[in-house]
Amino acid sequence: MEEQEIKKLQTALKSLWVNIAIYLLITLIEYWLAAIGHSQALRADAMNNLSGVISTLFLIVGLHTATDSDDHFLVGKRIPLLNGRNDDRMQLSRFRMATIFTLITSFIIIFIAGQIIFQGARDMYTAGISHHPNRYSALGAGIATVLMAVVCYFNYHNGKRLNNAVLSAAAKDSMGDVVTSFGTLVTVLMAFGFKVPWIDSTVSIIIGFFVLWSGLVIFQECTLNLADYVDPDLEQRIKTAIIQFDEVHQIMAFRSRYNGDVLIVEMLIMVDANMDVMTLYDLTERIEKQLERQFQIFDVTTQAVPDPGEVSH
User: What kind of membrane protein is this, topologically (predicted)?
Assistant: First the structure.
């Protein structure tokens, strides 16, 4: 299962390199046309896409660390041995690397958002005095909208095919960028057609706040992930699935956590005190397969205690 997860992440890595190439192309085109087209909104959209390039680069670094083929080292340090074997807990923790680097990315996105808002507010006072958006700005926004739509479809298709949370999240982010680029196109056309350049600066500030919101959402999600937070409703559904097994009398303890996108469950169940070892083993195997099939849980650790009411005397 670990090998399958690593292969999925390696495929996601290839897709992310395509993302970077297109994002970088969009950023260069937009920034160039914003300079000759005198559009602050288009420049803000270029900065927004630049944040996409930076965040994807950090994510690639994190995924590369997570998929490192050397099972004996983690971030340059040797993984300690447990009973002569590599500690499985430490090996699984490699999947947190993508989350850690994504958290770093959120700070960069928030910083870029601050720059966009500051620049937009400053240009608000000089909008239209010397320059105002022209048809080159509209061309840049139109090209960005089309290319972002291609990126969004590419990420959505591969995320669904691989059942990969990284690409699914990238698809949602790309959809936001499509909307932003299209909004920039409409703004530039309005500023150019109606000769109201202040709209351009206003929308650039709005884009800045949109980027800020995206950075804060990423920060929240990564922080909760690293703090071992799991949706209580999901945990309740997992418990309900476990208690459906007739042999499980009660769930005594339950804990779930994420290692990156990998969900791990540890639990203590109460079973018949007279259950033999092979029957108990079969039960835990059936529980594990059910949780993997129903909730895509990567690893399940099950311990059992006897039901005191059924102890044979």
Answer: Multi-pass membrane protein
